[in-house]
Predict the structure.
Amino acid sequence: MSRSIAAAALACGLAFSLSAATAGILVPVPAFPGSTASFVYGINNSNVVAGRYQGSDGVDHGFFGTLDGNYTAFDFPGGSSFVTSINDAGDITGYAEASNPNCPIIGCEYVRKADGTMEIVTKHGNPLDGQAEQIVKNRFVGEYWFIDDGGQTHINGYRGRMAAWKHDIVLPFDGVGRTRARGLNKKNEIVGFYTAGSTEPAFLIKDGVASSVAFTDPDTFETIFAGINGTGKIVGSWLNEDGSAGQAFIYESSNDTFRVIDVPGETITFARQVNDAGVVTVGGATSGYIYCTHKKLCPITAGAIEVKEKIVPAKHPGAKQWVLCKNGCEKDSADVRPASPAQLRAAIARDPSLLKELRDRR
């Protein structure tokens, strides 16, 4: 088959896939008992979920358990807990939503071992201030925040192992600002998002090549790749600039398309993790769900509803869609010191967009 004929066939196939009606299954996850809001973020291959709930005290607490609502709660010592991921052994990553002298911006990152031991994530012995994200075995990714001696705020993505920083993730695109690593799989593929001028595209690092990807809705400001499973399926969400609208999605790198997940009654939704069976955790304003592309794949079906999917092609910001990484998009960087409260106030005064960055963490 000639290249032109093959290209035409591919185009016809893509056009057909965009017009074809598809549907998936959305299932509400039992809320944590007595909570005012409850969200699931991580899910492992045994369908054990981990997330956070808000109690009557207005504080976020971590929890994990099975999809029938058999949950165990926990807290970061001295503060509330935000939970991001759980691996097959039951180890959990997250961060404390309580600042302290070591972590004054976001709060200290942690790995909670399956035996209940809580370990603070460190870089050269210093606690990291930021978010520890998807964990696979003893490897994970995340981001850390710091303010340099010139008063500039930085957000660096990184790869870690056994509750310690290993390497910064450095994207090879033009104009990269802050880098936010979110997802990791057993093939060492990494996903997340980054700032580039006035937008925040997503990224995928695979086989030493970095790809920049953006959702195609004209109101899109952020395209967030939040999780990736062992087969390379990616989940995340897009948001508009003021954070008032956005949708969860599944990104299929094989055909470069987004499958938008429609959640009835929700204005803003996000997909956070996906296990190897393709079960996705989805969040709305106050509730958590799991999403399955086919009903037979769903580990629970009580209250399940069929929802439509909209399939749209991706776009790729900048002149280059794929860029070969030098040194695997990783490097060692200088050590960082915790910011003082005065430095943080000065940084926010200098760059008010930091408040939006802080508000939009999810």
Observations:
- The radius of gyration is 20 Å.
- The chain has one domain: 21-359.
- The first helix runs from residue 3 to 19.
